[in-house]
Amino acid sequence: MAPDWLEAQFGALLAASMEPMAHRNAACARGLRERAVALMRERRGEPGWRADELAAQRIRRLVYWNAFVPLDGESLNDLVPPHYVALFHGIAAANKGAVMLQYPIWREAFINDADAALAEKTCGWLNPHPYKTFTDPARLSTPLAAMTLGKSYINCQQDTALRHSLPWHPRLSERLGLFRLVECSGSHELCFTDPTRLADAIEQAGRD
Description:
The chain is α/β, with parallel strands linked by helices and 208 residues long. The protein contains 9 helices and 6 strands; from the N terminus they run H-H-E-H-E-H-E-H-H-E-H-E-E-H-H. 40% of the residues lie in helices and 15% in strands. Helix 3 (45-55) links the parallel strand 1 and strand 2 (59-67).
């Protein structure tokens, strides 16, 4: 069950868009005392782009972990197969503008390296996500490939949240321009199935 504070704010979150999320991320970055490594994950690759433009002086490296890398004007829905868009749209229409993964999709595509017990347990932790964040376009004036800060991409090799004919790497990772590639075995949800392995990959990706 979601925490009370999350339930209380969920109605407002359904109207959320990428732009205010980006500004909140940028405000956090500006408050850092030291230059930091920013970890981008899934959709978080999108608000991260705008935050990088607003506060690049505080971020020394971006680490993308099986995350979307949109170009200016692209949304998440522009980067996934058409049948995913139809699926998301249908789920959102039936859930007041929210997208919630169904267990079979979670089990087979997102956490395929877990046993059934872990897959069921973690599926119970999922919360609905505002569909507007799937459709809002990314806005940036400088392509990420043109930015001079360090960039890394972590690719979990058994991640089938995107089918391997339309993969995370190299289709999206190469949009970073010059970047460091770190690969490891595991699904999209390696944080649940082998957090130590994921921590090692993040450390390799984030170091100087």
